[in-house]
Specification:
This protein is α+β, with helices and mostly antiparallel strands. Helices cover about 40% and strands about 20% of the residues. It has 17 helices and 14 strands. The protein has a 6-stranded mixed sheet. A 5-stranded mixed sheet has the order 5-6-7-2-12, with helices on both faces. A hairpin with a 3-residue loop joins β13 and β14. The protein is globular. About 5% of the residues have low confidence.
Length: about 525
């Protein structure tokens, strides 16, 4: 493609996907607001327009100018993505053994080998014997009339759109563990009619407690549940419970937004306007993960990242982790905007600057200034059009090491950004295999940055609105630190979950105080030293 045409096309894609007409050809995609899900859409759109790209290409060439040069260079060198493994067929064929396929029970429309991410989570849950582990709930209040028939229709259409909602697992009946996708699954809806707000609160609490104390049966679909406390008046309380083995956090948000969009369309008698999710995404992820599992290079890379002394005293790990305690710290609305500006100055993504503050605070909390290792949640969705609309489990958590926690915030963020870029070719190598190779946990604390902008779609609905959001989840890390932006019912800030037997309340308070202090310092001046943030 002509370089001028390529520049114009890529610049239009950048501006449309990030939502800013101010982006210039030399702007860094991640520094001006791009994230991992937006990157998937950019890569997919560019490829369909004749500019074949991978996520790693965008990571290493984050501006329009650099990408255009990369595409031109690849074309000049005569590189063929199919021959070099830079692109893969999205076909589902060849993943399931023919004998396994022939033995599928009646009612199963399709099957895939369960991913290593899924089997790893299920194994942890079985070993922990904790029905609340990775059993996630989100609740909200909907301002709209509740018509049970219409709501059931919306729920059924939701399940037809997203096969994961009709799936179960068979872990021992075939040559390998399988995820089965069924055709006819009854929508799992319970409805209670209530007359007062207090009665609604009580109904929601009772149902929540029941779900968190009841183990899911992996072999019987569906692996999610839905509860409605209808009333008082034209309002109802909606709670959805899912298991993390069938979907990640972005997928859960997508499910809620799609469900409310479908119900709104039925209330108004209009079309819902939701594009169909790509059918091949789940199979493509399994194929990509298998390639990562077989990579000795990936195994060696991750061992080098985490083969350092642990942060916590692991002699205290006498049982499965129970990270049931939570600590929240709401941050001023404008702070993240300031941090994004400072990240742009340093030419790094906002996520990398937040990760720098996290690692610095973690090191300070643990009395360590070198070899700070943290888990980092990474996105492994396939690079195909509309992959962000697919419901499934695509998030891995991998160890990342900061060799030195001394230096300016810009230096720390750049170091971590370069480490993430180096890790990108290996980011689908499952955490369970990383730790099996290491022989122990690879990290004690995990970092995540969430910006679930999919929820913004709710503002366009005509017959309903949502508020009163709450959520419950529990991961298997001793300390999980979520830096969240515009989360419904919370806003922007830190959401911490921890096991008080492994991480004391005093340590958590110290971490929160350090992280908040570091965030404010980095927002004032990204070129101040991380080891000595000013108190200003």
């Amino acid at each position: 493609m002509d370089p001028e045409l390529a520049t114009s096309a890529l610049l239009a894609i950048f501006r449309e996907e990030i939502g800013s007409e101010q982006i210039q050809p030399d702007d860094d995609f991640y520094a001006v607001g791009g994230d991992s899900l937006t990157a998937v859409r950019v890569v997919a759109r560019a490829t369909t327009q004749g500019m074949p790209l991978r996520l790693i290409d965008l990571l290493m060439n984050p501006s329009v100018e650099e990408l255009v040069e990369h595409v031109r260079s690849a074309a000049t060198d005569g590189r063929d993505p199919e021959e070099t493994g830079e692109a893969g067929a999205h076909a589902e064929g060849g993943l399931v053994d023919p004998e396994d396929q022939a033995a599928m029970p009646a009612g199963v429309l399709a099957a895939l080998p369960a991913s290593a991410l899924q089997t790893g989570l299920i194994f942890q849950c079985e070993m922990a014997e904790d029905p609340g582990l990775y059993h996630d709930l989100i609740g909200l209040r909907v301002a709209a009339p509740y018509d049970e028939g219409l709501f059931r229709s919306a729920l059924q259409e939701l399940m037809e759109r997203h096969p994961a909602l009709r799936s179960s697992f068979d872990l021992g009946g075939y040559s390998e563990s399988m995820q089965l996708f069924w055709g006819d699954v009854v929508e799992p809806l319970e409805t209670e009619r209530v007359d007062t707000v207090a009665a609604a609160d009580a109904a929601v609490s009772a149902w929540r407690d029941k779900q968190l104390s009841t183990a899911l049966d992996w072999e019987h679909p569906p692996l999610f549940r839905c509860h409605v406390a209808a009333g008082p008046g034209d309002t109802f309380r909606l709670t959805v419970a899912i298991h993390h083995a069938i979907m990640d956090g972005w997928s859960f948000a997508t499910v809620l937004v799609d469900l409310l969009t479908l119900y709104d369309a039925l209330l108004t008698g209009t079309g819902h306007g939701l594009p169909e999710p790509p059918a091949a995404a789940a199979a493509e992820f399994v194929r990509l993960e298998r390639a990562a599992v077989d990579s000795s290079e990936a195994a060696a890379f991750w061992r080098a990242q985490c083969d350092v002394p642990p942060l916590l005293d692991r002699e205290r790990y006498g049982r499965p982790v129970d990270a049931s305690r939570r600590r929240a710290a709401v941050l001023p609305p404008g702070l993240f905007a300031e941090l994004r500006s400072r990240a742009a100055e340093a030419r790094v993504p906002l996520k990398s600057l937040l990760l720098a503050v996290h690692c610095w605070a973690l090191g300070q909390m643990g009395g360590r200034t070198t070899d700070v290792v943290t888990g980092v949640v990474v996105n492994g969705r396939p690079e195909i059009p509309d992959a962000d609309r697919v419901v499934g489990l695509f998030l891995n958590t991998v160890p990342l090491r900061l060799p030195s926690a001394s230096g300016t915030w810009a230096v720390l963020a750049r170091t971590l950004w370069e480490a993430e870029s180096a890790a990108a070719p290996h980011h689908r190598h499952p955490l369970a295999l990383i730790e099996e190779n290491l022989g122990r946990r690879s990290f004690d604390a995990a970092f995540n940055f969430t910006n679930f902008h999919v929820y913004r779609r709710l503002s366009a609905l005509g017959a309903l609105s949502a508020d009163g959001w709450w959520d419950r989840d529990k991961a298997s890390h001793p300390l999980s630190c979520d830096f969240t932006l515009d989360y419904p019912g919370f806003g922007s800030g830190l959401l911490i979950s921890f096991d008080p037997d492994l991480v004391t309340q005093e340590q958590v308070e110290a971490y929160v105080a350090l992280a908040v202090k570091g965030l404010h310092a980095a927002a004032r001046d990204v070129h101040t030293a991380g080891s000595e943030p000013s108190d200003g």
